[in-house]
Prior knowledge:
Layout: E1 2-5, H1 18-27, H2 33-53, E2 59-61, H3 69-76, H4 92-101, E3 130-132, E4 139-141, E5 144-145, H5 157-167, E6 172-177, H6 179-185, E7 187-188, H7 199-215, E8 220-224, H8 234-248, E9 253-257, H9 267-272, E10 277-281, H10 289-295, E11 301-307, H11 317-332, E12 338-343, H12 362-365, H13 371-385, H14 392-406, H15 413-421, H16 433-444, H17 461-471, H18 477-498, E13 503-504, H19 515-518, E14 522-525, E15 532-535, E16 538-540, E17 544-550, H20 557-565, E18 571-576, H21 578-583, E19 586-587, H22 593-613, E20 618-622, H23 637-652, E21 660-665, H24 674-679, E22 684-687, H25 695-703, E23 708-711, H26 724-737, H27 756-779
Parallel strand pairs: 1-12, 2-6, 5-7, 6-8, 8-9, 9-10, 10-11, 11-12, 13-18, 17-19, 18-20, 20-21, 21-22, 22-23
Antiparallel strand pairs: 3-4, 14-17, 15-16
The structure holds glutamine and zinc ion.
Amino acid sequence: MTIHTHILGFPRIGSDRELKFALERHWRGEATEASLEETGKQLRARHWALQRDAGLAYVTVGDFAFYDQVANHIQLLGCEPARFAFDEKSSQLSRYFQMARGADSHADHAACCDGHADTAPDVSHYALEMTKWFDTNYHYLVPEFSPLTQFALASSRLFEEVAEAQALGHQVKAALIGPLTFLWLGKEKTPGFNRLALLDQLLPVYSALLDRLKQQGVDWVQIDEPILGLDLPTAWRSAFDSAYWQLNQVGVNILLATYFSPLEENLSLACRLPVAGLHVDGIRAPHELINVTDWLPAHKVLSIGIVDGRNIWRTDLDQAISVLQPLFDKRGGKRGGELWLAPSCSLLHTPFSLAQETSLDPEIKSWLAFATEKLAELALLKDALTGNSDGTALAVSRLAIASRRASARVHRPQVEQRLQALSPTADRRDAGFSLRQTLQRTRFQLPHFPTTTIGSFPQTASIRAARASFRRGELSASDYENSMRAEIAHAVGRQEALGLDVLVHGEAERNDMVEYFGEQLDGFLFTRYGWVQSYGSRCVKPPVIYGDVQRPTAMTVDWTVYAQSLTDKPMKGMLTGPITILQWSFVRDDQPRARTALQIALAIRDEVQDLEAAGIGIIQIDEPALREGLPLRRSQWDGYLDWATRAFRISACVVGDSTQIHTHMCYAEFNDILPQIAAMDADVITIETSRSDMELLTGFGQFDYPNDIGPGVYDIHSPRIPSASEMLRLLQKASAVIPPANLWVNPDCGLKTRGWKETEAALANMVQAARQMRGASAAA
Ligand code: GLN
Ligand code: ZN
C-alpha cells in the first residue's frame, strides 16, 4: 500500500504579495506584460519547489492565475464573451484583464465595505460579474453562457505551465475545474436557456485538453467538481456518469476532487464514477470517510483531505492519525490500493507562511499553520502512518496542541459562566414591535420618511494619513484623537447642513469594520502577513479568533458621545454584528462556531448597553455577512439561521423599548430567509435595493415584514449622483409594497469609498426626495 501526499492548489499571491504588486504595476502601465509573466513564472517555480521539498508526490500545476482560476478556464476553453474579442490586436492577457476589470476602466473592481470585498463590486459594464466561490471569501469571474456559446481549446497557458514545471524536474499533476462545475458556476445570458445543454459541446474540448496533457506526459489530472457537495438538480447529477465516462476514454488518470461540503446523496455517485481516484473533504465531512473508504473500488486512489485548507490552525496529528488509521487499515487490506493525503481543499484560502510572523506571540504562533506549514504537516502524517516518523516533530506538534487546549488565554471561565447564566429571555425585547414603534416615535419625533445614512462617510486621504502616522508612532495619541474628532465634527456639520434626520459619526476612526472591534476585544489576534486573496490583486487579512471573546472596555462610546454632543439630532451608534465579525475572521475550531458567535454577541451586547447608558438612543448593528454564512446545503440552513439570528438578538436585546435598534445588510438576497430576518427583530433594517430597482422589496411586502425598512435609494458603488426625481421614483415604488409609515430613506451602504463632493450632492438630492414624499403624503 502506497501513501502519497499532494495538494489541490497553493496560494498564488506570493509570500510578500509579489503578484499583487506586479499586477498593479502592470495595470498602471508601469510594467510590461513580459515582466508580469516573469513574476508569475518565478512565483510558480518557488511554490513548486516548496511542494517538492515537502516531499509531495506531485506538484500541482494549473492553480496559478493572474486574476482568477475560473477566468483562466474561460480563456482555456475559448468561451470569452464576444465583447472581449473586439480587438484582434490585443493580447490574450489584455483581453483577460478586460474580462476581469472592464475594458474602459482603470479602476479595479472597487471593494466597498471595509476592504472585505464582501459585496458585489463596482462592475463596469464590460467586465464579467464577480461572485463568491462557494462559501469562501474568494471571488471568481462568472462565465456567461448562451445558445451561441462555443468552446475550443483556445489558450496554451496551462500546457506551457506544465512544460515549465517539467523543465524544472517536477512530477506534475495538472488541476482543472471540472466541466460540470464550470457550467454550474456560469450564468445564462439568454432567458429560458439552460446552460447544461452546453455540456455535450464542452466535453470534447475537455477530452482534447486531457489528451494534450497526456501527450505532455502528465500522469494525473485533478478535476475539481465541488458542486458534488451541493443540492443538485437531478439533471445535473445524472450528467456526471456519461461526462466522466467520456473523459475517462482519454486514458489519463483522473482524480476527481470534491470539497467544502458533505457529498451526501452524491456519495455513491462520486465513488462509482469511472475515474482513477477520488478526493474528499475530511474536514467538512469526516463522517463520510468510512463510507467512502468502503464504497470506493479498491483499484482507485482515495485522497483524503485531512489538513484543514480553510483555516489556519495546526493540525492535531494524533487526532488525524486516529481518523486515518482505520481507513489505512481497510484500504491496506486491499491489494494495490493507494491512499493520498492532502489538505481538504486548495490552500488558496490560507495565508502563505508563518515564517514572517516574527512579532506574533510565540505560544499562539505555535498553534498555527499557514499554507507552507500545512505542507510539512502532510509529510509528518505520512511518516507517522508508514511508521517512519522519528518522533521529534510529532512531539513538538503534540506540545503545541496541548498548550492550545489548556491555555488560559483560550479559556476564560468568566466568559463561559456568562454564557451559562444567560436568561432564556436575554434575546428578547421587553415589548413587541408596535409598542416600541410608538414609544420611539414619541421619543425621537422624526418626520415621516426619516432620512439617515449607513454609517461611514468618506475615508479621505487625510484620515488615512493620520491613521498611518499614528500607527507608525509619529502622531501622538492625543493628536490622533484630535484629528479624528475634527473629522467627526466635520461629518456631523455636513449632515446637519444637509438636513438629515438621524445622524452618524462617520466612522473616521475605523480602518475596517471588523478589525476595529477585533483589536479591542480579548481573544483576537492580528497577523502581519496573513493575507488571503479575495479577488484579482485584492487581499484581505482576516483576524484570528483564538480564544474566548470578551470586551475589556467600551469601544465606541467616547466617539459616539462626542458626536452626539455636537448636535440635537439623534446620533446613531454604529457597531458590527457578531455574525459579520465571525464570518470575516479565521475562527477557532475547538468549539462550535455558534458558541464563538455567542461570545462575540455578549461583547457587542456590553457595548450596546454602554451606548444606551451614555444616552445614545439609536444603535445600529451591521450584519452584512449574515447571508454569506449560510451553509452550502439547504438542510443545514435552519440550524445556522437559528443560532445566527439568536446571536444578533443577544447583542441587541439588552436595551429598553424606547431605544431603537437598526441593522444593515448589503447585497443580500432576502426572499428565502425573510422569516429569519424578521426574527432578528431590529426596529429598522436598511438594505441594498437601488440596483435591483426596488425589486428586492417585493418579498418584504408579500411577507408582510413587520418592522421598519430603509430600502437603499441610491447605489454608493458609483460616483454618479442620482437626481432627486430618480430617488423619488424609487421611494414611490417602495411605498407601493411597504406601508409608507414604516419606510426610511437612506443610501444602499456606507459612503467610505466615495468623495465628499459627490456624497453631499447625492445626499442633498436624497433629502429632497424624502421631503417630496412627505409633501405628497401630507397632501393626500
Ligand atoms: N456601517 C458600515 C459602513 O457604513 C456598514 C458597511 C457594510 O455594510 N459593509 O461603512
Ligand atoms: Zn452595506
